Amino acid sequence: MTVASDKYCALAHTLDMGEGALRVAVKDCIDIQGTVSACGSAALRSSPPAQKNAAVVDALLARDCTIIGKANMHELAYGMTGVNAAFGTPINPKWPDRIPGGSSSGSAVAVAADLCDFSVGSDTGGSVRQPAICCGVYGIKPSFGRVSRDGCHPAHSSLDCIGVFARSIAMIETGMETIDPSFTRVSLKKPLRVARIDCSAAPEIQTVIDRHFGAEPVIPLPQMSAAFEAGMTLIGIEAISAYGTFLEQGDDLGTDVRARLEHAAKIPPKAFLDAQKTRLQFTKEVDMALTQFDVLLCPALPIIPPTLLEAKDPATVLPLTKFLRPFNLSGHPAIVLPFTAGPQALPAGLQLIGRKGEDAFLCAAAHKIASILTEAQRETTP
């Protein structure tokens, strides 16, 4: 299979692996036998090649897939911009002046640029869903633990999920069927009970959501902000556990990742206990809400993704996962649906959250809600 020209810097390595009809890109923190899993870091560039495939790679090759390459990423999956000085920053195909998002930047760009049919990334705090919206494609974070992380880096995580990017919900479902044999498509048998989470985004984003979903009931999740902070705490603790020794190595780490690791190294032990307490409280809140409703809805991002220039200020980047990260903490499946907002038609999106283990039902709900968004955007586009 011939791989299309990668003028967008989406791929860290090109491959032609497998004989299937579906083209797939795989994030560079996922092992592929014979290739180095550099995780976007110069500190790992000279690591030995992987001895075997990650479980998800074997699943892809066992189904109708050809792996076209390992996708670029934000260094050590520890950043939200996708900017990478060591391996190159993937170019957002639709909005080239804006960040591609992170950390699964190359996976999102590969799909948006039509280099592949779907791609595989990882999501520890929004790392599939945020770049999906930045690049105008769909992205799913499955229920925690649903898809095997064997052969993924870092090896241990209480937050990370292997997820899928695609240009349609139908292809998201194909991707999920491929990486998870237990995933079986379903269709809606009765009216969908939807509730909006009590939170709001920038006016140009909120206007779209209110226009089309303003009649849906609003429910509070009082622990959502605390869950965001708890997720930040846990990812910091787990990142320093996996990569803390890199702080002792010269200049191999990017400036932003070094700063984040140095900050993580100072997290006090009590913060871990508080984060776990918040995890239990927030998970209970979400579970309770989902006994009354089938799907919870909220903005995917609170703001329009910043330009590459704006993203040099960390303060413009931190809010991007405000509504995404909490559901890594709780472990619920979440899918994002892209739309454009404002007179310049800039990237924005909607997030849907479902019950744990009901990922296929969440996709069925996404079909219905995406069709509302698509028709609405068609009607409002000049």
Describe the model:
InterPro entries: Amidase, Amidase_CS, Amidase_dom, AS_sf. Pfam families: Amidase. This is Amidase. One of its GO terms (molecular function) is catalytic activity. It comes from Pacificibacter maritimus. With about 375 residues, the protein is α/β, with parallel strands linked by helices. It folds into two domains: about 170 residues, Amidase signature (AS) enzymes, CATH 3.90.1300.10; about 190 residues, Amidase signature (AS) domain (Amidase signature (AS) enzymes, Alpha-Beta Complex), CATH 3.90.1300.10. It contains ten helices and eleven strands. Strands 1-3-2-4-6-5-10-11-9-7-8 form an eleven-stranded mixed sheet, with helices on both faces. Helix 2 packs parallel to helix 3. The radius of gyration is 19 Å and the shape is globular. The relative contact order is 0.14. The mean pLDDT is about 95.
How many beta-strand runs? 11
**What is the typical, i.e. mean, pLDDT?**
96
CATH homologous superfamily caption of the largest domain:
Amidase signature (AS) domain
Q: Span between N and C termini?
A: 39 Å
The number of domains: 2
Unreliable residue runs: none
Helical fraction equals 25-40%
Structural class by sheet pairing and helices:
alpha/beta
